[in-house]
Design goal:
alpha+beta; Arc Repressor Mutant, subunit A; Alpha-Beta Plaits; 2 domains; 5 helices; 4 strands; 37% helix
Length: 158
């Protein structure tokens, strides 16, 4: 269970994981040693999965953000699931993939350079395994919110 100080540390780290222990300590009212101890506990036992860097996809020439819905030939059987997981490892363009309820079996968030890259990606995905019945692609026109920050509940908040 996290307390209010842990929650504040998590919020601060999501904003900027490069903050030093001294800066974090100042912001939460603890000593740097106490912050170090809490962060170690949060990494070992708690919600900190890993530290990473966020890149600007446009700066890397990945200008199209797409959502690709998949329907499988035989619903989401274990064979289809395993085939999809194995296939996705060969496609770094796939940022996220989820199985779904409803009309489609899975949805992927994908970044590509342009329409030609998208065409090659979709063809490669379809050819990589034979369990997909239908691929439906939607291009994001505008991005109003994009975050990796999770809402961290503090005691006393809903």
């Amino acid at each position: 269970m996290i307390d209010d100080v842990d929650a504040r540390l998590l919020v601060l780290l999501q904003e900027n994981s490069q903050r030093t222990h001294v800066e974090l300590a100042r912001d939460v009212g603890l000593s740097p040693a106490a912050v170090h101890k809490r962060l170690k506990r949060l990494r070992e036992d708690g919600p900190i999965e890993r530290f990473t860097v966020l890149l600007d996809r446009h700066a890397l020439g990945l200008n199209l953000l797409c959502f690709i819905e998949l329907r499988f030939k035989h619903n989401m059987s274990p064979v289809n699931r395993e085939s999809l997981i194995a296939t996705l490892s060969g496609f770094p363009e796939v940022l996220e993939c989820f199985t779904l309820t409803g009309d489609n079996d899975a949805i992927m968030k994908v970044v590509v350079r342009d329409q030609e890259h998208l065409k090659v990606f979709v063809q490669g995905l379809a050819e990589a395994q034979d369990v997909i019945e239908r691929i439906r692609t939607a291009l994001a026109l505008e991005e109003y919110k994009s975050t990796t920050a999770l809402p961290v509940a503090q005691r006393g908040s809903a």
